[in-house]
Amino acid sequence: MKNRILSLVFVCVAALTSSCREDVDASVLEAYVGPINMAINIHLIRSDSAIVRSEIKAPKQLDFANGNQEFPEGIEIQIFEKNGELSTTMVADRGYLYKEDNIFKGEGNVQVHNIIKDQKLQSEELFWEPNKKKIYTEKFVRVQNGGTFSYGSGFEADETFSTYTLKNPRDGQIELSGEGI
Asked: Which InterPro entries would you find in this protein's record (predicted)?
């Protein structure tokens, strides 16, 4: 009888420890890092002392758990003067907000236009730091100031694109009037 009970206990222990289980795909257990929220046709207004300082518009905004945001269908940022006059627009094919550093990044066909000075910039990438009130890139840029075109790799300006520094300048072009030289 002792042998039977001992055998029964052994069989039960063996059955419990060697149960059937399937191999689990490790990719199923990975943490989700995609967007946690989505907004359509956003229009954000930033103001200081009841005066509009900037407006951000985008057809689609994706929010992530770490606070970052993505604007996969483009972004438009408008900067206003202290008197409320629209001074500068920035447009990009795609946009990102890195929340921890409060830095916006535009990618694709990035265009900046200072309406007051009629200056234009084109690049494939541009960063905007609202807290430091500056825009910059290390990528190739084309700057149009009236009829003058300047090119370079690297650029830094105040956020209104009123004053700027062109790093590593390359060829420039000046538009001539129709009268010739």
From this structure: LipoPS_assembly_LptC-rel, LptC
